[in-house]
Design brief:
By secondary structure, this protein is α+β, with helices and mostly antiparallel strands. Helix content is 28%, strand content 16%. It has 2 domains: 12-214, Rossmann fold, CATH 3.40.50; 265-384, Alpha-Beta Plaits, CATH 3.30.70.
Length: 392
């Protein structure tokens, strides 16, 4: 028998894994698959997107921003069919912030349908600069999970939160600009409020294939970019952030980055983003390179040979590792933070690693040290692993 819908106990990563697993196992997942690591596409997404037309907020809106994810294709189509100005964020914000989707004059239904696809977003888009004076009346985002109270969990890369913060920063959205998410019914879960960070975006409406939920969420949305949570690596990856930062600096705002904060640096929580520094710190005993794709890279620390094969260790899960990260870079970062596991199990293809420690106290300290660590532009997730036994 199939498991029932996911329950929302545990961390954000537990919830993501449960939702992805459930969508795949219950046959609800749609192309592109597997849905793991993505804003998942699901059966009935088009139906859920159609409900957008029923919302007053949509009828009133002139400019609608919709994320580029596959399950939101129907929302992009609805905006184009209703002759709204459609803005789509550029993937990973590599260039600018938005593209305006401009269908050719006299576009047929078929052409509009094409404009709403990811290929169409590339072919029919006009980049909109910071001075494009966008005034977004409605924001549509994808989610991995969402609660009826409006708490949202994305895929863990923080782009939706960052896009929203940037829109606030450039004056494109106001505090009362409605935010809509479109998900399958099984993605609507109870989410503990303590899992939310102050930079997390909340939603006002949830559309599923069977219902429309108004969350009446009172939690304030992010008030702009929280520079102390941005790493220099992320700044390097998102050119438009640099522009916004220099503007805000000129306006007299504190734009100190995560890895420039003396308080953070002193407690060894700085984001270690400079790969040259990492390379210089790599001691000869670090294994260069990384494990073959998908294969866990197991390693015992030679400093603790007597612990080899011991199964009384406590494991720490480290998730959201960037795809480009090598095991040697992770180890170098760990050494900088004086986090010394007795064993490291590297699962780069799954963007995660497990660190094993002698006892729970050491593991807890490691989790604290890893809070706020950012590598390759990704904020890593660190928490005690549920049941990880790495024998082999």
């Amino acid at each position: 028998a199939l498991a029932g819908p996911p329950s929302a106990a545990g961390s954000k990563w537990d919830i993501r894994e449960k939702v992805w697993e459930h969508l795949e196992a219950s046959g609800l997942a749609e192309f592109p698959r597997p849905v793991h690591g993505r804003i998942p596409n699901f059966k009935g997404s088009l139906q859920a997107c159609c409900s957008l037309r029923e919302l007053d907020a949509f009828s009133r809106a002139r400019e609608v921003k919709v994320d580029p994810d596959k399950p939101l294709e129907g929302a992009r189509l609805a905006a184009l069919q209703a002759r709204k100005t459609l803005l789509v964020p550029t993937p990973r914000l590599r260039t600018g912030l938005f593209n305006r989707i401009v269908p050719p004059p006299g576009a047929t239904k078929e052409v509009l349908r094409k404009c709403a696809t990811s290929q169409g977003v590339k072919d029919y888009s006009v980049p909109l600069g910071l001075d494009g004076k966008a005034k977004v009346d409605l924001v549509v985002v994808g989610s991995v999970a969402v609660s009826e109270k409006g708490w949202r969990i994305g895929k863990g890369e923080g782009y939706a939160d960052m896009e929203y913060a940037m829109m606030v920063s450039m004056g494109a959205v106001q505090e009362d600009t409605p935010v809509v998410t479109i998900v399958h019914d099984c993605q609507v879960l109870d989410i503990a409020e303590e899992l939310l960070d102050d930079h997390d975006l909340t939603v006002d409406y949830i559309l599923t294939p069977t219902r429309t939920i108004q969350t009446n969420c009172k939690r304030p949305k992010p008030q702009g970019i929280m520079w102390h949570k941005v790493s220099s690596e992320m700044l390097g990856k998102i050119p438009i952030l640099k522009t916004l930062r220099s503007r805000e600096k000129q306006a007299g705002k504190d734009v100190t980055l995560q890895d420039e904060h003396p308080a953070l640096a002193n407690t060894n929580r700085a984001a270690l983003s400079n790969k040259k520094v990492m390379a210089a710190n790599t001691q000869p005993r670090a294994t260069p390179g990384s494990a073959p794709m998908g294969q866990p890279h197991m390693e015992n620390d030679p400093v603790n040979p007597r612990l080899e094969g011991s199964d009384t260790t406590t494991a720490v899960f480290v998730g959201n590792l960037p795809a480009s990260l090598r095991v040697s870079e992770l180890k170098s970062a760990l050494r900088e933070l004086q986090v010394v596991p007795v064993r490291l199990s590297w699962q780069g293809a799954q963007h995660r690693a497990f660190l094993e420690f002698r006892d729970k106290g050491t593991a807890d300290r490691a989790v604290s040290s890893l809070q706020g660590l950012s590598l390759g532009g990704n904020s890593l997730r660190a928490e005690l692993a549920k049941t990880h036994r790495s024998k082999g």
